[in-house]
Structure formats: C-alpha cells, structure tokens
What does this fold into?
Amino acid sequence: MNKAALVIDLEFWHTSEFLREYVPRDYNDMVLDATIPILNLLDKNKTKATFAIVGQLAEKYPDLVRTIYNKGHEVASHCYSHRMLNDLGVNKFEDEIKRSVEILSAITGEQPIGFRAPSFSVTQPTSWVFKILKKYNFKYDASIFPIKTILYGVSNAPLIPYKPNPDNILLNEVNADIIEFPATVMNFVGKLMPISGGFYFRIFPLWFIKYALRRVILQRPIIFYIHPWDLYVDVPRINLHFLPKIITYYGLKYAMKKFELLLNEFNFRPIKEVLFLSD
Ligand SMILES: [Zn+2]
It folds into this structure.
C-alpha cells in the first residue's frame, strides 16, 4: 500500500528559526555534503521521495535540483527565503511563492504541485495561503502540524489528509481546491505526540519511532520528514542556549544510520503518489 510519504526539506541549515540570528550568512552551507549521501541512500533503497526545496537554495544549486528531479524524486516548493508565513504576510508570501515556482519550473521544466511552509507555519491566521496556492496551481499543502508547540502548530486540526476550509482550517470543505497532508502524530494515552521526523526522529529511539509509525499507518497515511542537517554529523557547532542547542544537535551521530534502518521498514514514496496526484 502507498501509505507512507517521505519528504526531505531542503534548506540552508542556518535558516532554522532557532539559528537564524546566530549564524552569518556566508557560513559554510554544507548543502552538497549533507544532501548527496541522502540521495545515494535513497538510490540504494530504490526509494523515491518529495524534496521540498527553498528557492534561494535552488538558485545557488540548480544542478543539485536537476539531479534530484532526474532521479525521479518529486520537487515541491518550500517557499523562497524560509521565513515563516506569519512574518511574511500575504503580499510578501505571494512574491516568494511566485519566485519559487519560477525558479523550480525553470530548472525542472515542470510546475511544482506541492507546497510545504517553512516551520509548519500554516495556521488559522495564515489561512490566506490556500487562496494563493490555488492561484499558482498547487494541488496540495503539507504544512499543518496538528499539535501546538512553542514555534508552530494548530490544536485540534484533522490528522488525516483533508481539504481545509480557508475560513476555518479545522473543517473539511469537500469543494476546496487544496489537499492538506497534516504532519503525522501519534495518539499516546489520550495525548497527541509528535514522532515523525526532524528533531523528534533524533530524540526518540528507533524502535519507538517504528512502533509509533506502524501503529498510525494502520489508521491513516503517514508522512515522515527530515532535513539534510538532521542527518549530517558535522553540522557546525555554535554556542547556543540550551533548547536550541538540543534541538539542533541532539542525536546527530546516529541519525543517518537510524534513517537507513527506517527506510528498510517502510515503503516510502513521494507525497503526490500517496495522495494519488501523480500523472
Ligand atoms: Zn524548512
């Protein structure tokens, strides 16, 4: 069954909300060093994924984006600058998404149909995003995190793919245009728990992640996300406060091996295939 989607968020490691203010922009971006091993691993496992790519990164590394596309992975938009939608506002967001579509389409020759907001920043106050995604011919969004966290999230959002009503994104609107694939969470003794990627993947043991995903996939499709810098042991060490330090560096040493083992367990596919949007 095509029920497990894999998305790699391809962005500069220093544009994470926790690091943005600390790191100079001319820092080593490690994009190729961190991304090529992932592409090789996916080849080895015959796995195709969705790469949600930041426009600025695609501008700097068009050959990498072309390689990703030519290998048969899906290329989706991760906006242009990786700023959160609430920071951008409607007009700047539209400028960014337009630019992102132009850049990705020029490289691949194909219009992206998938969007993934930086830092899961699709929430009720930014629900205008759906109208703009429709205008630029997107078919799905994978940006709602159905647990409220310190940085992002929407409490009580649906857990299964649905069509958000832009006036109230908690509601399914059959006639809406954009499909939402919410981040995968697990119901654990009556509480929802994030489990399916990024920092959560690094902090929990692999047996627990596998157990959790196996349990959830019995009920609904799952989506697992990772950034190349989640799997790259040499992410430059900078002096951070306790929480950003844990979130940035915890578990890096074993993350690539864990990821390889996880790939063997699930038949991951690009998001567009799991949502039956492939042509
Ligand atoms: Zn991102």
Notes: DSSP finds ten helices and twelve strands in the chain. Residues 4-274 form a domain with the TIM Barrel fold (CATH 3.20.20.370).
